[in-house]
Amino acid sequence: MVRVDRQGPRAYVLDTNVLIHDPAAVYKFKENSVIIPMTVLEELDKLKSGNTDISRSARQATRILGALLDRVAQDAVADGIPVGEPPDPGMPVGRLFFLLAEPGTGVPGLDGHSADNHIIAEVREAQRTRTGELVVLVSKDVNLRVKCAALAIPVEDYRNDQVLDDIDAMIRGVHVAGPAFWHELDAEVESWADGGRSYYRITGPAVAEWHPGLLICESEQGGFEAIVRERDGNSVVLEVCRNHRGERGGVWGVMARSVRQNFGLSILLDPSIDLVTIAGAAGTGKTYMALAAGLHQVYEERRFERIIVTREAIPMGENIGFLPGTEEEKMAPWMGGIQDNLEELLRSEDSWTAAAGKDILAGRILFRSPVFMRGRTFNDTFLIIDEAQNLSPKQIKSLVTRAGRGTKIVCLGNVRQIDSPYLTETTCGLTYLVQRFRHWPHAAHITLQDVERSRLALQAEETL
What we know:
The chain has 464 residues and is an alpha/beta fold. The protein has helices at residues 16-21, 38-47, 53-69, 115-129, 142-150, 181-184, 259-269, 286-300, 327-331, 336-345, 351-362, 393-400, 429-436, 455-463; strands at residues 10-14, 33-37, 81-83, 94-99, 134-138, 155-156, 174-176, 188-194, 197-203, 215-219, 222-232, 235-240, 275-280, 306-311, 365-368, 381-386, 408-413, 443-448. It folds into 2 domains: 10-156, 5'-nuclease (Rossmann fold); 167-463, P-loop containing nucleotide triphosphate hydrolases (Rossmann fold, 3-Layer(aba) Sandwich), CATH 3.40.50. It has a 6-stranded mixed sheet with strand order 3-4-2-1-5-6. The chain has a 6-stranded mixed sheet with strand order 7-10-11-12-9-8, with helices on one face. A 6-stranded parallel sheet has the order 15-14-16-17-13-18, with helices on both faces.
């Protein structure tokens, strides 16, 4: 990618995928000029028909452009359409322009029938005609950015959708205070018990970075473990976590093997937590714990009426094609991991008992596609969103807003395994959700570390 260091006025040429990813992108460039090539308008026109998320985004982007066009007279469009309002009187405001390359301005050596190559030609035309501005192409297509870099055309990724600059800055949901935590804590401490639970109020500068839903522990091996329940300035309230390590504390036969798994089970079972996000590598127990907690709360505590599991249907390899059957039957191949975990949770020495148990559970565990979630409301539901890293922020918002009365949403994923071509670790829905809800007292997050699937899986995670 060509690094753009020059100061001064700029003109940003937007690729189609930028407007699909963020239909309101034209508003995100402040006082700079924004240019939409005719090739992009043609691609939006082709994409706008249909019921997919891409089609909906194309229609929304087209509506936004139409609303801007209505602000000015037709003969004034060539002078630029004002975008937004100036922040202060006298300050410049960005303008939107449309661009068509002159005939015969293609790039030698590049296929003239390619839409990407047409956009490159239009960028070069903008460079030729807009000598007072630095013309920069903005695209989420890596291949197009590589082409531009090879042709010395300034190009950037679209960064306004990034939740973080670095994925390592994403909260992990845990603060390891160290074994000398209580001795070194420069704060006022008050303790009490209520309803069989132990609480601490800590007041002092040491809690400045703590947020509700955060696990506070002395070490990763055990000791003191508590969740931040409330925060008011430099004062927080901690509640000691339950112990789910032994058989007495097990959930549907599942026992925690680490501090983080124990916290994961605690927040999955906590009725005051409405949104749980669990990240971690393959084999850390995300799905296994979520299903165990869901079964426990549906069949033993009667807190929910059903479990709904959904995930984005993005294949790991080449798509196998059309799948016949009902929605549930079409989703079955994508839910293989869920089915494997269910079979393990329902495993019994008595095959008849196991088969009967599966039949009973079948009516309470439903597999649904996110494609058909729009407009629905789920009440008294334990909703598991698997592989949430493959969802965009807009998709994750559409799913979380389905929550009705008495519903708990659990989002699982691994930001290191993203299959969607236009999402990254810093822009995916899981990262977006974790960061946006980190200060809400009814949400909690944990990143699991220890691979528990098998010693082979652990070795593969570490060495491959």
